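hey so i finally got around to running the thing on that chain from the lab meeting. sorry it took forever, my laptop kept dying and i had to restart like 3 times. anyway pasting the input first so we r on the same page abt which one it is
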Amino acid sequence: MEPFGVMHDYIKSNDNHNKFVNKSEVPEICKSEPCMLGVDEAGRGPVLGPMVYGIAYCPISQKDVLKTLECADSKALTEEKRDEILLKMLTEKESLDNVGWIAEVISPNYISNSMYRRAKHSLNEVSMNSAISLIKQAIELGANITEVYVDTVGPPEKYQTKLSEIFPNLKITVAKKADSIYPIVSAASIVAKVTRDHALKVWQFHEGLEMDYKDFGSGYPGDPLTKKFIREQIDRVFGYPLLVRFSWSTAELMLQEKAAKCNFEEIDNVTNKATGTQSISSFFSPKNEKKRKRHKFFEERYLTMNNAFE
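ok and heres what got predicted. didnt touch it at all, straight out
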C-alpha cells in the first residue's frame, strides 16, 4: 500500500463539506507522565481547500524524540521532508511509543458558512475554537497534559489569557513563530501541513469535475493554477465547487463578475409604533393576515395558494 494509503482512505471516507478529526492512539507513557502539547495550523490563507489544525504531544522527559524526528517549522521543510517525518510518527516504534497527535480538517464550506452566518464567526474564532477543542480532546482521551505551546492567532497576550482561563491547571505559552521555537509546535505544524497536503491530493469533487490536485495548484491566491481554477470553474447559478472558500475576496469578486445576480427582498414586518418592535400577537392576528401583501413572485405569475388543511 502507498505510504499514506490509510490516511488517504480515512480522509476520503469523510464528508469534505464539513469538518472531521483524524488522530493517533494515545501512547501509554502519555497517560502517566506529564506531557507537553503543541498547537499549530496549516492552510489559513488559501482560497482553495481546508484549513487544518494539528496538535502533537509527548512526555516532557522524552522531548529528545522530537530532535530525533528532526522536527522543525513545517514551512522551512520541503514537502518530501515533512512527509518523511510524519511517516516516522505513524510507523516507527520510538515515535508510536512517545508521540500522540490529532488533526482537525476544517472544510472550505464550513469556514465560509461560519463567516457568513447571522452570528458571524471570524477566521480567528474558527481557529481558536479548533485549538481549544483539540486540547480538550487530548485531555479527554487520557493524555496527561501539563504544558501547552501555541503558535498565536492575533495578539499572543490576549490569546494566552483566554486559554489560561479555559485551562487554569495548565502552563500555557502563546507566541509568535512558536513553530520555529518549540519542537513540539513544529511537530504539530508538520501534522497539520501534511494532513492538508494529502487532503488536497485526494479531494473528491461531488460536483462531477474530473480534475487532479495538480490542476488547481496550491490553493493560494497568487498561484497561477489556482487563479485559473477560480476564473474558469464557476457556475453562473451554483457558483463554485466545495473546494473553494467562497467568502474569500478572490472568490467574491469573481462571483460578482461572472455569476448571475441574486436579489433578496425583505418583507415588511408588523411593528409596534411605540417601541419599534414586532408584536408576538401580530403573527396570529386574522386582521393582519388579511392585510399582508402578496409577494411579487406570485403576483407576476398570477399564482394563488390554497389552504392545504381545508
